[in-house]
Amino acid sequence: MLGRRAFLAWAGAAGSVAVPARALTAPPPPQAEVDKPAPAFDVVDTRGRHQTLARFAGRTVVLEWTSPTCPFAAAQYESGRMQALQTWARGRGVVWLTVLSSHPSRSDWLEPEAAEAFDQKRGGNPTALLIDDSGAMGHAYGAMTANHMFVIDRKGVLLYAGGIDDAMSTKAAEVSQAHNYVRAALDDILAGRKVKTATSEPAGCAIAYAG
């Protein structure tokens, strides 16, 4: 199971400052555990469709938690790496679900239409964009930051949980040169190999859950 010592961050006037997750209010214990069946979910996407894990049985699934205000997430798209990885993965039959778990009481919550427009503007190319504004899906997976990523194999087993890459950066140039853990995990899974790096520390802005 992924350790709880993920790095969260907030963007200040002078830049972004990382703080340990334990310094913030902890979410309920997650159900997700690497090498175990991934938690089921039923979440409506920006087009009003119910997206469930069961619907994608027999296919590899990537879950990408994101935020419209996080500079760590923005750097991934400014570099072009996130949308390129989405396109590459979908071209190989992988389902890519981008998830917004911000609560309606939080400043970065978006209504479905606005969320769809935001993702299109930054060039996102997911299979669907999910609005998990209750936080149920995010808490089940233990999603802690924008850019917290999960990869589930065709049997529904969680095989990767952690950050998108080893840059932990808000700078697109640094992101462009980083080792991408999700791409590496997908390469292993699609080739039928054991995932070499199954967990890593997620970095980014804390998910804006309720409270």
Record field, number of beta strands: 10
> In which order are the strands of the major sheet placed?
7-6-5-8-9
Number of domains: 1
Mean pLDDT: 89
Contiguous uncertain segments of 5+ residues? 1-7, 9-24
- Estimate the strand proportion: 15-25%
CATH class: Alpha Beta
Rg from Cα: 15 Å
CATH fold node name? Glutaredoxin
* Helix percent band: 10-25%
The biggest sheet, with number of strands, parallel, antiparallel or mixed sense and barrel status, is:
5 strands, mixed
CATH homology group: Glutaredoxin
Shape: globular
Describe this structure in words.
A hairpin with a 5-residue loop joins β3 and β4. The chain is built from six helices and ten strands. Helix content is 23%, strand content 21%. It has a single domain, classed as Glutaredoxin, CATH 3.40.30. The chain has 211 residues and is of the alpha/beta class.
Question: Which helices and strands occur, and which strands form pairs?
Answer:
Elements: E1 7-12, E2 15-20, E3 42-44, E4 50-52, E5 61-65, H1 71-78, H2 81-90, E6 95-100, H3 112-121, E7 128-131, H4 136-141, E8 149-152, E9 158-162, H5 172-176, H6 181-190, E10 203-205
Parallel strand pairs: 1-10, 5-6, 6-7
Antiparallel strand pairs: 1-2, 3-4, 5-8, 8-9
List the main descriptive attributes of the protein structure presented here.
alpha/beta; 211 residues; five-stranded mixed beta sheet; globular; three-stranded mixed beta sheet; Glutaredoxin; disordered N terminus; single chain
